[in-house]
Amino acid sequence: MSDGQGVFISFEGIDGSGKSTQARQLAERLRARGHAVVLTREPGGSPGAEEIRRLVLEGDPDRWSAETEILLFTAARRDHLERTIRPALAAGQIVICDRFADSTRMYQGLSRGDLRALVDQLHGLMIGREPDLTVLIDMDPDIGLARAKGRQGTEERFEDFGPDLQRRMRAGFRALAAEFPARFRVIDGARPVADVAGSVLAAVTPILPERADG
Ligand code: ADP
Ligand code: TYD
Question: Which fold has domain 7-207?
């Protein structure tokens, strides 16, 4: 690994699939085992990136062109990487990130034309780092959307896109997992929280450093 002894884990999946819930559960379980864990999220995860989060998630769905949106998400990611992720990895910590570059490959790469090549080019130039392991929480978009709609809030630019987009995103994420099988673990999210958390822990354990509590 290029960033010290740390381990970088991302969670991906459609809106409402349980990523945030599972990222939190994993952080708790690993901390209980004595690991130093940084739990973070995208867009956001550093003060500057959290400011960009408001620009991309609030307001009219047509607020930004597809290309501008790719630049904004990548700018947020660069700041997050510089200020939060790289320092934590260099200090030997486990970084658990709720969404990372695969979300840009899907949401910006697929939703408004085929911009995947552009996303990948910008990623290569400005980010150049993939997670060591990516947990894809896979589930039927109808369940995910119903769960996500249960939350009240102003961050609705993408959820407003509706079930068709979520279906394409699910298929896209599964295709991405097939494209990068060494890094991805696909986990069925349509089960009770504790069952999903057990599968996540089993998937992650093989790449963890020696347990800090011996
Ligand atoms: P995401 O981060 O993928 O959008 P969340 O973790 O925020 O998903 O979960 C969306 C909603 O579904 C939340 O209200 C959460 O409490 C609920 N939820 C999460 N996991 C499960 C599960 N396995 N079964 C039932 N409800 C769940
Ligand atoms: P998130 O807060 O993870 O929402 P949810 O909990 O509903 O999954 O992400 C907010 C939205 O941002 C989500 O709809 C996906 C979108 N997004 C992108 O479009 N591109 C990106 O690169 C990232 C990280 C997120």
Answer: Rossmann fold (3.40.50)
